[in-house]
Amino acid sequence: MKRIDGIGLHQVQAVYSGAEGQLWELVMGEQIHLGGLVSSMDLAEKAGIAPGMSGIDLCCCNGAGMRMLVRLRGVARMHGVDVTETVVKLGEHRCQAAGLSDRITFSLADACQTGLPSASADFIWGEDAWCYVVDKKRLIAEAVRIVKPSGTIAFTDWIEGPPGLSDAEARRFLTFMKFPNIQDMAGYQRLLVDSGCEVLRVEDTGRFAPCVDLYLNMLNRQLTYDALRIVGYDMTLLEQLGAEMKFVGELAHAGKIAQGLFVARKHGPVPQEKNA
């Protein structure tokens, strides 16, 4: 797992409390993850998210994923956890405006130490956000703790691809994205198994490179003025950000970074043997 020093909670909070977070939503939409609704519905289908279930979204950002699950998958209740006050308040406002506050709630907390009751949800959900968490082992352990026995953990995340990142590439990528580290596919599988899960599905979605190409195309052809407004009409800064996005796209096309999809099941109680 590639890592970098000097990036942690405060840097991530700054991203989603300021201009960078607004830029991500400008190009990615309210669902700030690769593939938007297509990605969300794909994950929900592969994880078996069904009507009437209750779920917890760890690192929920503005709650767009939860609103999708309630509206389009018939999920009964969702609770989101995020450590950035700005996005939690925004999420609460958007849920209230959508008339969903009775089914979707939030807490401002560390996803590695949520304070939520153990075995309290049918499934745990995450979309392209766990890459911001420093201690992924603790994060997975917390997800397993709060999901019910035989419950599901379903998430996508930005991961290191099989060719691997050089040290220089990793340093540049992690610095730009404000990721403290980046896990790979095998690493997430180990963490899930070690925390008491059966891994049901692991795959590279193949969405990363096409999505970054789309974002760059929109910024260069349609949304340039909107992006300039967000960064205070600083053309030099916008060009620098564009160059870093192009670099991310190059890594994606080389297979060095990817969007990984993971579905796991928490082990249930061991069946009791019947007396003969």
Care to give the gist of this entry?
This protein has helices spanning 9-16, 19-28, 36-47, 64-72, 85-97, 136-146, 167-177, 185-194, 208-221, 224-230, 235-253; strands at residues 2-3, 54-58, 77-82, 104-108, 121-127, 147-160, 181-182, 197-204, 257-266. The protein has 276 residues and is an alpha/beta fold. The chain has a 7-stranded mixed β-sheet with strand order 4-3-2-5-6-9-8, with helices on both faces.
What distance lies between the first and last C-alpha atoms, to the nearest angstrom? 50 Å
Q: Superfamily at the CATH H level?
A: Vaccinia Virus protein VP39
CATH topology: Rossmann fold
State the secondary-structure class.
Answer: alpha/beta
Count the E strands: 9
Oligomer: single chain
Low-confidence stretches: none
Spatial order of the strands forming the largest sheet: 4-3-2-5-6-9-8
Number of helices, where a helix is a run of at least 4 consecutive DSSP H or I residues: 11
The CATH architecture name reads: 3-Layer(aba) Sandwich
Task: Describe the sheet with the most strands.
Answer: 7 strands, mixed
